[in-house]
Amino acid sequence: MADEIRRLSDDLARDPSSLVFMPLADALRRAGQLDIALRVALRGLDRHPYIADAHDVLARIHADRGDLERAADEWEMALRLDPSHPQASLGLGFIDFRRGDLESAERRLSSATDPDHGVASALAHVRSALAARSTSAAVAVEEPPVVVAKPETRGRLTPVATAVVEYPAPDVSRARELFTPVLEGADQTALLVDADGLVLAGSYRDAAGQDVSEIVAAELAGVSGEAERAMRHLGLGAWTSLLVEADAAVLAMTPAPVGSLLVVAASKQTPVGLVRLLLDRALTRARDWLARVS
Fold first, then answer.
1. Which of 31, 113, 133, 294 is least enclosed, having the fewest CB within 10 Å?
2. Is residue 265 part of a domain?
3. Which domain holds residue 186?
């Protein structure tokens, strides 16, 4: 990433009017250098104000900075310049989804003329959320788990503590709480993300307690593919897990079924062994849940 930024910066320095400001600003955004990315994008748009892709890049930067209003303005501008711009439709659908306006998100994504770029997957995700909301509104009380006692070899019933619990069909509307039973503290979180960077289950909260699941999921899109390529180049076989010790947290991630990615995060004080254990527990639940909803 650093080499890419350096190369693109050199290209822009040689020709300040070049359109290379767009990939440079996006590379800076992906590297987390949001302030510099913002300056590069704004300076480039001063020279090229009528390029839809440039407004899309600026919108992504605003979204990563948490300024969804400005992000929406830029994606609206991108659509005015190019009504078929798929990333702008996807971005506006994402913002509507974050605001809880599922109907608007569904309309925006349905109107996209290009089903690629993750639009089709995002639309399916929104429609699933709409169906789940309709179901939860129609059913006041969710069906409880059914406890079935298994007979012992001596003919008696097993104790309740060892009974088999059979759950009804998964309620997609409660997917956010999927990993709650395996987490052990408020400083722990788990998130299941699909290949297009959309939240499947779980949640991710930042240090301030704010739910940033969709933003984190979008940033994780493609991580599995990058890890697979790295392992292939190094001749190490398939990757099974990745542990990251950062300044503020410890993160562990692993590939999950149907191309998804599971991430578990905990506070810096959490022992690494416990984080790995939580990842294993969460992966077991993710596999079971995905098998039942697919």
1. 294
2. yes
3. 173-293
